[in-house]
Specification:
heterodimer, A: alpha/beta, FAD/NAD(P)-binding domain, seven-stranded mixed β-sheet, five-stranded parallel β-sheet, 33% helix, globular, B: alpha+beta, Ubiquitin-like (UB roll), five-stranded mixed β-sheet, two-stranded antiparallel ribbon, 3 helices
């Protein structure tokens, strides 16, 4: 079955919701699709109207959700974007089957994922991402009484630790790889230039729960057997071992560039380049939020609104938000600089440490490869189910390999979805 | 969004929003019964299959070398949480909500 829309928005996080609501309010026919079971993205995951008050960003989500629902936008949760099968035609898949959606304008708001770095034991059950732990708890995982170590780098560490602590977890410590000098500079900047950022609230929350926050510190090893039970950490140069139930470890975020890359959008220094109205180098394709720089909630919202106004054919309203956008872009630059990865982390994986989790390819097997092509041919690294989404960020840092090509379909899909193009009715049921 | 937009959203849809809150309060008490690797398990309505697997202490899948794996990213990216649901393999459990009678199997 085919559907035609003026605007299709991929990704129902803050950026996608803002873009879709603004465009639909002007009378455009808009479709907002997302692979997750409900709109909200990562930061607003699992916030229901009932719980909205207990989340720091709950009221803002409730307001946007009401605005979206009233805008007349079609919302398709549980639909995964699979491929651009023709000019202005996107193939999407859900449990129910696949369909093609046609659009005049496409707004990509696919967000970011965590960067994971391999260390011995990182594949053990109980080791998860920092955002991963937060997402799982928001989808019903009970953290009460769990001893949790939060490690890696980025502002998420503080926010997630505070969130887990208030939900009843016992945070055994936060281990941030960034050095004090960078954090101090960042703290000064957020205090004077960006009041009200999430960091401040998180810091306050953590003081309440008396959680130790270590800088210059990182996880060296997770130990089992069977599941993580103990973690070896390097705390400002000293080695230490801490018992835990969960290890939440992630190294800031990387944008989900598969769709923009597949479409041929210009990408520079790791992000999609866009103009004042969020338009990429490909006509009719806009990118918002983390795709253009990791900047979080406020940046995504303002860029979403700009793209929404642009799609509605109102450049004046779009441009009027430029000053607010510039402030958020500046914040994104500061984040990247503050949480830059230190060289010591390249020495974390040992020879037998798995780097590609899908195909169990070890550091040893990859160390001799010159790039993605050789790695794929000889080891199957990056060729498993995640298509290099997890090992890609690691390989970029560990081996200096640039991003691998993005090829259709951008997600593992059913054969019936691939074959839908040759089906006369255009719909393939599973 | 301006402050006035924000208030308008709330006031315009207040009865609907209140009804939604009441419905969700009722639903939160509902327990869903499913089986994980053949064993019955109860979770709160709205719990993802990935969260249920972790609470059951069961691995989601086994790697090509046979290692037990559990959810990593929690957001549908890493594919480590794939399970078999009602006989269909390779389902991303973090993207699925538990449904009464669901049969979930590791691997």
């Amino acid at each position: 079955m085919n559907s035609r829309f003026d605007v299709v928005v991929v990704g129902a996080g803050p950026g996608g919701i803002a873009a879709a609501a603004v465009a639909a309010e002007t009378g455009k026919r808009v479709c907002l699709l997302d692979a997750n079971p409900a709109p909200g993205g990562q930061i607003w995951r699992g916030i229901s109207a009932q719980k909205a008050k207990s989340y720091p960003q709950g009221a803002e989500f409730a307001a946007w959700k009401l605005r979206l629902d009233a805008s007349g936008c079609e919302i398709w949760p549980g639909w995964q974007a699979a491929d651009i099968v023709a000019l202005r035609r996107l193939r999407v898949e859900s449990e129910a089957g696949s369909r093609d959606v046609e659009f005049e304008r496409l707004i990509l708001a696919t967000g970011a994922r965590e960067r994971f770095l391999p260390f011995p034991g990182w594949t053990l059950p109980g080791v998860m991402g920092v955002g991963g732990a937060q997402a799982l708890v928001k989808s019903g995982l009970d953290p009460r009484g769990k001893r949790v170590i939060v490690a890696g780098t980025g502002p998420l560490l503080l926010a997630v630790a505070a969130g887990l602590a208030s939900a009843g977890a016992k945070i055994e410590g936060i281990f941030e790889q960034a050095p004090l000098a960078r954090l101090t500079r960042f703290a000064m900047y957020t205090m004077f230039a960006q009041p009200g950022k999430v960091m401040e609230g998180a810091r306050y929350g953590l003081r309440t729960f008396a959680v130790p926050y270590h800088l210059n510190s990182w996880v060296r090893q997770a130990q089992g057997p069977g599941r993580v039970e103990r973690v070896q950490v390097s705390i400002d140069g000293k080695e230490s071992a801490i018992d835990c139930d969960w290890l939440a470890c992630g190294f800031h975020l990387v944008p989900n560039l598969e769709l923009p890359r597949l479409l041929g959008c210009n990408i520079a220094a790791g992000y999609v380049t866009v103009d004042d109205m969020q338009q990429s180098s490909v006509p009719g394709v806009a990118c918002v939020g983390e795709l253009t720089g990791i900047g979080g909630l406020e940046k995504a919202l303002i860029e979403g609104e700009i793209a929404g106004w642009a799609a509605a054919g109102n450049p004046t309203r779009a441009i009027s938000l430029s000053a607010q956008r510039r402030k958020q872009q500046e914040f994104a630059l500061h984040l990247d600089r503050t949480f830059e990865l230190r060289a010591e982390l390249r020495r974390l994986p040992m020879a037998p440490t798995v780097v590609c989790r899908c195909e169990d390819v070890t550091h040893n097997a990859l160390a001799g490869c010159t790039g993605w092509r050789e790695a794929k041919l000889h080891t199957r690294c990056g060729m498993g189910a995640c298509q290099g989404r997890i090992c890609g960020g690691a390989a970029e840092f560990l081996y200096g390999w640039g991003p691998a090509d993005s090829r259709p379909p951008v997600y593992p899909v059913r054969v019936s979805t691939l074959a839908a193009g040759i089906d006369a009715a255009g719909i393939a049921s599973c | 969004m301006t402050k006035s937009d924000y208030h308008r959203c709330y006031t315009r849809n207040e009865p609907a929003a209140k009804a939604a809150v009441k419905l969700e309060e009722t639903l939160a008490d509902v327990q869903i019964l499913l089986t994980v690797n053949g064993r019955p398990m109860q979770v709160a309505a709205g719990t993802s299959v990935a969260a249920a697997m972790m609470m059951a202490g069961e691995p989601c899948r086994f790697s090509v070398e046979g290692e037990a794996r559990a959810p990593l990213c929690g957001m549908g990216i890493c594919m480590e949480c794939r399970v078999t649901v009602n006989g269909v393999s390779h389902r991303r459990s973090c993207q699925m909500i538990c449904v009464a009678g669901m049969e979930v199997v590791s691997g």
